[in-house]
Amino acid sequence: MKNISIELLWHCSAGSAGVNRAFPYRFTRKSNQTRLSFPNLPRTSYRLKSCSATLSLMVEMEENPKFDADKAASLVKELRKNFNSGRTRSYEWRVSQLKSIEKMVEEKEREITEALHKDLSKPAFEAYISEISQVKSSCKSALKELSGWMIPEKVKTSLTTYPSSAEIVSEPLGVVLVISTWNFPFSLSLDPVIGAISAGNAVVLKPSEISPATSLLLSKLVEEYLDKSAIRVVEGAVDETTSLLEQKWDKILYTGSARVGRIVMAAAAKHLTPVTLELGGKCPAVVDSNIDLQVAVRRIIAGKWALNSGQVCIGVDYIITTKDLAPKLINSLKYELEQFFGKDPLQSKDMSRIVSSSQFARLVKMLDEDKVSDKVVFGGQRDESQLRIAPAILLDVPEDSQIMQEEIFGPLMPILTVENLEDSFEVINSKPKPLAAYLFTNDEQLKKDFVQKISSGGMLINDTILHVAVDGLPFGGVGESGMGAYHGKFSFDAFSHKKAVLYRSFTGDASVRYPPYTPGKQRLLKALISGNIISIILALIGWSKD
Amino acid sequence: MESVGDLERDLEGMREYYSQGKTKEASWRKSQLKGLLTLLKEKEEDIFKALKQDLGKHHVEAFRDEIGTLTKSLNNALGSLKEWMSGRKAILPKIAVLSTAEIVPEPLGLVLIFSSWNYPFGLSLEPLIGAIAAGNTVVLKLSELAPACASLLANTIPNFVDNKAVKVFQGGPTVAEQLLQQKWDKIFFTGSARTGRLVLSAAAKHLTPVTLELGGKCPAVVDSLSSSFDRKAAVKRIVVGKYGACAGQACIAIDYILAERKNISTLVEMMKVIIKEMFGGNPIESHSIARIINKQHFLRLKNLLEDPNVKASIVYGGSLDEDHLFIEPTILVDPPLEAAIMTEEIFGPLLPIISLEKIEDSIQFLNSRPKPLAIYCFTKNKSLERRMISETSSGGVVFNDAIIQYAADSLPFGGVGESGVGRYHGKFSFDTFSHEKAITRRSFLTDFWFRYPPWNAHKWQLLECAYNSDYLGLLLVILGLKKPRRGSYQPAYSH
């Protein structure tokens, strides 16, 4: 799949119907288009939620044989054979592959940065922080911890199985599929792959076709640096993904939209395949008045505009604050935004662009909605030819507007005002559970209530985004924002089966377990299960209270 | 069953009750668990009766596998609840000064449990314990195939636990389908792989996480054992792990045996003796072995034996009493591997023994079949033990015993591949019904300027030091004592 070329982005979403724009990247001619259809899903679910591998159609070059279900089947068969040979299970193999990833990132940093710039105009610094260093540190911590992760966990056993010993052994699941997305096309591809390799699996990675330069680079680099017999990249769009999803996998990790997440899960159901779904949602930031406003505002900007122009599944989607604080907050945001991105942010080299014209159109439509357009209090200028939108702040947009109903996934920030900050809980709880929830306050009680009453994948008090970089924390959603978690040891666990192993010796057998059942045996069983030593002795010598 | 409208209203009410936060309180959870303990104690006789009626289970077996195990689980949950509920700290890198991180378990919301008929109490209440301990509201759908047990549970549970938070439904596939159309925050299913697929597909529509407790053909690999004491212990455990576990109608019952050809005749002879010892010369009289759940399953088992090649391989037992739905403990030696008895989960008192040349061949035998819920291996050979763990895959492995892992709270109970998704028992039950919320707290005091744009080479260098935990480098760059190595590095592109 080396000569993949991506042209016509063709969204299956009502939101962007009619916005078929040629993607100016290695254009070739088109052949047969087929629409992906999943008859089990109601059509009404066709709403674009972002953080996504957006569905699009791709066109093949004629000389490039299509990756169809047969190809997918033989790929899985080959990898399964290699997995069954046991080569991926050894500690040495896992370490060698992780080291190769490390080496690859080290040696190809420039290529990676350039691909990310092609796909998203991602500033080199941002690419370094959120993609390259993220992958590096995942590799580093996996290499450091792997031998510890692989050691079976000894557990205590109780009287009911006495005498025995027990342990929990982590074993690889087999052949796994990672489907990644376009907003952090490098780290969101390799982070899960690192987990899959650490756990000793064979893995197929399907990068997003919406970020074609990175997708192509990944396929090239993985082939160059990693063990081809167990780690593969399949490039492509809907057709290729569909072919892959028809196969039997031992695990699927998908990053993207809730809509496609449902499709992935339904496909997995046929083979009883466990899934981890990393989705998104509207992540709120609640801002209290008793805080260091400048620091808070800088951190909010870092978690919205300074991070891939808000195209982040854990980016701040909207702000809730009090009526009193709103004007001050807006002023401070304006001031700091200018400090960061200059007077004309459309020209700033420190901000990513919008990934595609259809995403651009979706965001513009949100901004131009009738009841919304007059709520813009700052920014929002756009440059369609460069796919850039200047940071926009909107005040008190109506709840039923598209911008408050969908995940924004772009540089638009609605601010909602409430009388009391506690009212924000109701606003948040009336929406699907988000992947992250942010709170800026010094009020301990409010912090406590926030943790207690708000359900979200993760939570960060007084900052944004940073929790993702904490290896000791699971990263994953709940409800609409996903299921399962990864990062650090959690990645290893996500791709492992926890096998319960119980060792018994032949001695130490209580006759009570075996028929013929007598009243005496029942008394002893009762005593054994209650763990009451006196009763056990009484039952054994034939006296009992019952 | 009520109408769909009533069901939706009921569930709405439960969600409303959940949102009030009552079920999140530790005291509420404790009192519900205590309620279940009281239920088991007060209704013990009724439970024995219902199990006798539905499955012909002897009351000591019923106590061992259902009431007793549940009592132990409840006591364990009550004793550990506080520890389970308290979050755990996560370690942060040094750069994150004045920050703390922890993982806090929170309930998922409204969850659905489907239980099964073979252990109608155990498989209903064991997950219920987890769901309640984790602070959820729960709908429990009981199997219609064990009607006496279902009606007992449906009538008693509301009297012992908060009926605003726990609702019990009886009924068949129609009810199950209606329930599956609703949106749940978790579905926990015990049953067959076929229905498991349906549950998973239905859950996909609402992105509901699912735990599937399925089954599979659990093998017992029996090595040559030199001491007669060990041999006898092994055979006793095998016999009770098959016929003594609801007459083989258990997802972790031994499905078949793998043994070396030279040992088979001894093995069969010993099994015959032990079966007589345990269940008497006429097992149907002794009441110490359960009957088949219903006619349909009885006929399914009968059909397994109908194949002439299978019939010819019976070396013990094989008599069927259709009126009493009773099947005698049956042993078969080398039935054809492609016969249904060796391709489907048996789920009854028929025990095929497959002969191998070398016991090590068992590994390849197992790997060519779907992953079972459990592998039992009777051996004293350490190298076989190691290979069995690392070269085969299954929900769990038990050495030198069978079934008993069900009672170990410290071990996860659950399958892999065809035998299921997810796990429970003990703390794992609590985790299964919880979301692990990652929480990080930061102070406003430390804020590194190099986190924010506009970007320059100096900030980059600092970030690199920070990410590499190179604190000395960080200090040197800040003090201007270290040259940024990326000074000239800017990718060659323009806007």
UniProtKB/TrEMBL annotation, chain A:
It catalyses: an aldehyde + NAD(+) + H2O = a carboxylate + NADH + 2 H(+). GO terms for molecular function: aldehyde dehydrogenase (NAD+) activity. Residues 64-501 form the Aldehyde dehydrogenase domain. GO terms for biological process: aldehyde metabolic process; response to abscisic acid; response to water deprivation. It holds the Pfam family Aldedh. PROSITE patterns: ALDEHYDE_DEHYDR_CYS. Keywords: NAD, Oxidoreductase. The active site is at E278, C313. Gene3D superfamilies: Aldehyde Dehydrogenase, Chain A, domain 1, Aldehyde Dehydrogenase, Chain A, domain 2. The keyword Oxidoreductase applies. Belongs to the aldehyde dehydrogenase family. This is Aldehyde dehydrogenase.
From TrEMBL, chain B:
InterPro entries: Ald_DH/histidinol_DH, Ald_DH_C, Ald_DH_N, Aldehyde_DH_dom, Aldehyde_DH_NAD(P). Keywords: NAD, Oxidoreductase. GO terms for biological process: aldehyde metabolic process; response to abscisic acid; response to water deprivation. One of its GO terms (molecular function) is aldehyde dehydrogenase (NAD+) activity. The active site is at E213, C251. It catalyses: an aldehyde + NAD(+) + H2O = a carboxylate + NADH + 2 H(+). Residues 13-438 form the Aldehyde dehydrogenase domain. Belongs to the aldehyde dehydrogenase family. This is Aldehyde dehydrogenase.
